[in-house]
Specification:
The protein has a single domain, classed as Lambda Exonuclease, Chain A (Alpha-Beta Complex), CATH 3.90.320. The chain is built from 8 helices and 7 strands. Strands 1, 2, 3, 4, 5, 6 and 7 form a 7-stranded mixed beta sheet that branches.
């Protein structure tokens, strides 16, 4: 029987940030809050609690559930803006911090656009990331490169979900901001050679 498990949109952001983090959260069901995640949770609750409204020819719909069954992804969008003149839809994702050096936020946002495209049969040209810390709104075009990168991550997460292997840790500076650092122990486990030691014990001379 085929695996009907749909990938949460958040898992794509987790994987793009760190495959091990994604596996810990979504396969191992591990989670821990820190100041950053707690602040982010409060921000999303505030955003989700807002009522739909219309201003200057734009309809704002909050906490919109979406899915793309052909791609196998699903999730809840913070905000969808609809231009009432053209009908164009724009997903908006709220983030607690500031613009990231990597593409992990953009990949999550692009996946939101892919969901809207499958559901509405219209092209979603771009989305927006709104960073709370800097009060900056970043327009993100869904170009061919970002779309392909997002599709690649979807395939990698599907493969991760279908196996029980936990990716090995790789300690980087960004690990310090991860709420799972104490569970992951990247500094310690990245240097762990016990598996090689055991293998050598049983290798024929």
């Amino acid at each position: 029987m085929p695996d009907l498990r749909l990938i949460p949109l958040s898992a794509l952001q987790h994987y793009a940030f760190c495959p091990r983090q994604c596996a810990l959260i979504h396969n191992e069901q591990a989670w821990a809050d820190n100041f950053l995640t707690a602040t982010g949770n409060r921000l999303h609750k505030r955003v989700d609690s807002g009522e739909p409204e219309t201003r200057k020819g734009v309809r704002f719909e909050r906490a919109v559930m979406v899915s793309a069954e052909k791609l196998g992804i699903t999730g809840k969008l913070d905000l969808v803006e609809k231009d009432l003149k053209t009908g164009q839809l724009t997903p908006v994702e709220y983030k607690k911090g500031k613009e990231k050096p990597g593409n992990w936020d953009k990949i999550q946002l692009c996946a939101q656009g892919l969901c809207l495209e499958e559901m509405t049969q219209q092209t979603i040209a771009q989305g927006c990331l709104w960073y709370w810390e800097t009060r900056h709104r970043l327009d993100v075009p869904f170009d061919d490169a970002l779309r392909q990168q997002t599709l690649d991550v979807i395939d990698k997460v599907k493969a991760l979900f279908s196996c029980s292997t936990l990716p090995r840790p790789v300690f980087e500076k960004r690990c310090n901001a991860c709420s799972l650092i104490d569970i992951c122990n990247p500094k310690i486990l990245a240097k762990d050679t016990s598996s090689q030691y055991v293998q050598r014990l049983f290798d024929p001379e």
